[in-house]
Structure formats: structure tokens, C-alpha cells
Amino acid sequence: MNRFREEIEEEEIGPEPELKAAPKRPKTAEEKMDSNSFISKLFNDGLVSKEAATDALPYLCFLALLGMVYIANSHFAVNNVRRIDKLNKEVKELRWEYKSLKADLMFKSKLTEVAKKVDTLGIKELIEPPKKIIVKSDEY
User: Fold this and answer.
1) Do the domain assignments include residue 81?
2) Would 118 disulfide with which of 67, 123, 125, 136, CB 3.0-4.6 Å?
3) How many domains does the chain have?
């Protein structure tokens, strides 16, 4: 029995082989999140208690809702600006078309232009002034 102990003690006393450090395996995403997560550190270290976090949850939900309303409002405003620009361009185009049509009508309604158009129908311009017709009535 002693002999067995002596052998064990001799083996322990003998030169110990140098141990090489085992290569570290990379941490998985879950391990990284667990060890480095800001939220887990916040709750585990006791900076914020779970009760305080649950009490602040309605406030955080309200802030999230306000953020979504703010984003939706900005999108609505941008769409309104785009629509206003599009309508302004359309109004400008219609104004130009109105002015060109008005100028064309003014040109075509000149006496000389009307005379040219009517000449093809056989109607000619009067050279002498019109005569006034007077009707005498016997009723007086």
C-alpha cells in the first residue's frame, strides 16, 4: 500500500511537462451578446432594476410612437412638397399654352386674316360704308 503511494508521489515530484495554452475558440454570437450586451450589463450590474424598467416601459412606448409620428409627418410633408412642385410645373405649362392660344386667336381675328379666310367662300369685304334703312310707318 505504501509502495503505491510512493509511486504516485514520485510521479508528482518528477519534472512536469510544459503545458501549451490551448487555442481559444472564437466566441459565438450568443456568447458575445451575453457577455458584452449593454442591456444585460445594465440589468445584471444593478444599475437599473427590473421594476424600474417595467415602470418606464409605457414612457418608452410613447416615445417610440412619437418617433413614428414624426417620421410619418416628415414623409407626408415631403410628398406634399413634391406634389406642389408638380402642380406648379403644370400651371406654368397651362399658362404658356393659354398665352400662345390667345396670341393665335388675336392674330386670326384681325380684319385682314378674316378677309383672307372668308375670300375662299366668295364673301368680299365692303368697300363703301353701310347704308341706313329708315322705315316710315303710317300709324302716327
Assistant:
1) yes
2) 123
3) 1
Report the C-alpha gap between 125 and 117 in whole angstroms. Answer: 11
Q: Give residue 77's domain range.
A: 36-119
Residue 110 CA, chain-centre distance (Å), reads 53
Task: Quickly list DSSP for the chain.
Answer: -HHHHHHHHHHHHSPPPPPPPPPPPPPPHHHHHHHH-HHHHHHHTTSS-HHHHHHHHHHHHHHHHHHHHHHHHHHHHHHHHHHHHHHHHHHHHHHHHHHHHHHHHHHHTSHHHHHHHHHTTT----SSPPPPP----S--
Give yes or no for residue 3 having a pLDDT over 60: no
- Note whether residue 136 is domain-resident: no
Domain membership of residue 109 (yes or no) is yes
- The answer as to whether 132 is a domain residue is no
* 22-29 contact pairs (CB < 8 A, 24+): none
Q: Is the pTM of this model over 0.85?
A: no
For the segment 114-130, what is each residue's pLDDT rounded down to a tens digit? 888 888 888 888 889 98
Q: Hey, what's the cell of 106? A: 388675336
